[in-house]
Design goal:
Number of strands: 8
Distance between the termini: 28 Å
Largest sheet: 8 strands, parallel
CATH superfamily: Aldolase class I
CATH topology: TIM Barrel
Number of domains: 1
Order of helices and strands: HHEHEHEHEHHEHEHHHEHHHE
Length: 332
């Protein structure tokens, strides 16, 4: 197990070349040369929450709100099957009246029966009864980022969060593990008010939870949010290099985890972000299968790469990157 001091050294050292090389070696030994492609379907930009960092927050009147129909969602899953992805990720703003327990259960059953795809859900904080029903319907994985282990900071950026001793999202992750899900989580890097010490705790928490998937991404300010308009700063860099250091450390802590190279990384650096993510231990991409006329409405942050440059999100572009690095698409 890596110590806090070792992790902090890797995060702040002048060069991370050796760290990245070790992460690639571990990925090769545990995952081989295959890269998983999982089709992202952004179901809706309607959200009942008011998280201070998110462009889709309920009180932002400038968001184009939309909600996909069930047949459209299943059609996207069918496209994922045609592309040999193996898994779809159903992601939406938090809205229980729209994504009811029964509706999501029906969607899961349809996708499994009609397309054969595995189903990952990313629908935010939900009740134990909801997640139990969805597991019974056939859901395979659930992705719920806890964003930060710093509870004071978490509560500040998530108004209305329950004031409990246990982190509410960590508690849900643990419940879902018991229900039989593969669980995924992650954090934002560079949140105003975030410290390097708290990021070290975040990374060690991934290992404590024995996560199956870890999603790390830089915090990108949205000008129509309270946090985006705030003068607060962070001692955590918002950069490709720092994010990739966190990928590499996560690979060392959790050799068998699936680690996506996130869209936010490519948004920071459209030319090299994807390559650097793979070169630091990532082994998953989630190409956006959301119909193009909906995508602009799903903007947690502005300038999202798959909206302003859809070709950067194309399968051909991804495969070209894989070939350059001696990697290949893997079904799963």
């Amino acid at each position: 197990m890596m110590t806090r001091e070792e992790i902090l050294h890797h995060l702040t050292a002048p060069s991370a070349a050796n760290l990245f090389a070790e992460a690639r070696q571990i990925r090769q030994s545990t995952k081989g040369n295959g890269i998983f492609l999982r089709g992202l379907i952004e179901l809706s930009s309607i959200c009942q929450r008011n998280c201070l960092y998110c462009g889709m927050r309920h009180d932002n009147p400038k968001v184009h709100r939309y909600a996909m129909q069930d047949d459209e969602i299943v059609a996207c899953a069918a496209l994922a099957a045609q592309l040999d992805f193996g898994t779809v990720v159903l992601q939406a703003g938090e809205c229980e009246r729209l994504w009811t327990r029964e509706r999501v259960s029906t969607l899961i059953r349809r996708i499994k029966a009609e397309t054969g795809q595995k189903v990952t859900l990313s629908l935010g904080e939900r009740s134990e009864a909801d997640t139990a029903e969805w597991k019974a319907a056939g859901a395979d994985r659930y992705l719920l980022r806890f964003e930060t282990t710093d509870r004071t900071l978490f509560n500040q950026i998530h108004p209305g969060s329950p004031q409990t001793d246990e982190h509410p999202r960590v508690a849900q992750l643990l419940r879902m593990r018991e229900q039989g899900y593969e669980i995924g989580s992650g954090v934002m890097l560079g949140i105003p008010g975030q410290t390097l010490d708290s990021v070290v705790t975040d990374l060690l928490t991934f290992q404590t939870l024995q996560l199956d998937m870890v999603g790390l991404g830089p915090y990108l300010r949205h000008p129509e949010t309270p946090l985006g308009q705030s003068a607060l700063t962070s001692e955590v860099p918002v950069s490709v290099d720092f994010t990739c250091r966190c990928y590499a450390i996560t690979r060392l802590l959790l050799p068998n985890a699936n680690i996506p190279s996130t869209t936010a990384l490519s948004t920071l650096d459209p030319i090299n972000g994807r390559t650097q993510g793979l070169s630091s231990g990532a082994n998953v991409f989630m190409p956006n299968l959301t119909p193009a006329f909906y995508r602009e409405g799903y903007q947690i942050y502005p300038g999202k790469i798959c909206v302003i440059a859809p070709q950067a999100d194309s399968l051909d572009a991804l495969k070209a990157t894989f070939t350059t690095l001696g990697l290949h698409q893997q079904n799963g």
